[in-house]
């Protein structure tokens, strides 16, 4: 565990701030590559559970806020690509459960807030295209 500030390579848990490569759990803030659970804030690549805020690529569960690519469950806020369950807020692509609020394409369940593409059931509020069960 550690709390690096920049340009660091950390294989285990830590709370780096920027420009870090972390293969395990951590809470980086920006420009980090994290393969496991973490709570990065921006510009991070995380293959497992995490709570990034922006510019992250996360294949599993996480709670990113913006610009993230997440294949599993998560609660991103904006600009995210999430294939499974999540509760994004805006600009997200989510294939599974969510509850978007507006401008979303959701075939199943989800709980995104805006500008999301979700293939499963959801409970969108407005401007949504939903092929399955939902409560818009």
Automatic annotation (TrEMBL):
The protein's name: Uncharacterized protein
Source lineage: Eukaryota, Metazoa, Cnidaria, Anthozoa, Hexacorallia
InterPro entries attached to this UniProt entry: ODFP (IPR037389)
CC annotations in GO: polymeric cytoskeletal fiber
Provenance organism: Nematostella vectensis (Starlet sea anemone)
Domain of life: Eukaryota
């Amino acid at each position: 565990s550690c709390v690096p500030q920049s340009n660091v390579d950390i294989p285990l848990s830590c709370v780096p701030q920027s420009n870090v490569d972390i293969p395990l759990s951590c809470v980086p803030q920006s420009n980090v590559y994290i393969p496991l659970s973490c709570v990065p804030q921006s510009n991070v690549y995380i293959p497992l559970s995490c709570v990034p805020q922006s510019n992250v690529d996360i294949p599993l569960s996480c709670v990113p806020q913006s610009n993230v690519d997440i294949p599993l469950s998560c609660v991103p806020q904006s600009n995210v690509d999430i294939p499974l369950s999540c509760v994004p807020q805006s600009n997200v692509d989510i294939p599974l459960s969510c509850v978007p609020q507006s401008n979303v394409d959701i075939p199943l369940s989800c709980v995104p807030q805006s500008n999301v593409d979700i293939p499963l059931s959801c409970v969108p509020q407005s401007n949504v295209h939903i092929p399955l069960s939902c409560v818009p």
